[in-house]
Amino acid sequence: MKFFRFTLILSVILFNSVGKSPADQKLSAWLGSSYVLPGEESELWLTVTSDSRPLEKPKTPATTSISFRFLGETVFPYSTSKRTYTYRYVVLSYEKGLHVIPPFSLNHQGTLLESPSFQFYVQDLPENAWFTAEVGGDLQHFATTTRLPFRTPFEAEAILVEAKIYLPSQLQVEKASIANLA
To answer: What pTM does this model have?
Structure first.
């Protein structure tokens, strides 16, 4: 009986320690900011976790209104046998309106992986976003904007809000947090 129990436990451990097959892998994606000004850059991260390095970087989708610039590749440890390969891109558009960032694709270990698509909003700041304040005896122009999801949230539902503060280039922020802005 002890031998059977030991064999069963060992089988479960070995079964759970087997890595995912290439079909189980996915190309994940995160977009830094979905709401930008014309010409403002946002950063897109694509990641795949695997026991072997992909032979090529993800293929950039063809679009007419959005441009992508490859920033580089970073490798992060995931486990003793796997690594997370991260590909960073700048996303940029000068055309105002709602755009869709199509999926990126990566052929890895014989499997075609695709990232999710994202909505990307490009619009000017409204006139009421601008304000003036005196800093060091000089009048400086600032702008703030917040973006809420387009759908109506449920009562007491937590929602993500994107807040941005645009500072003059001659000012430098050494340290800030949401608590410091309150």
So the answer is: 0.69
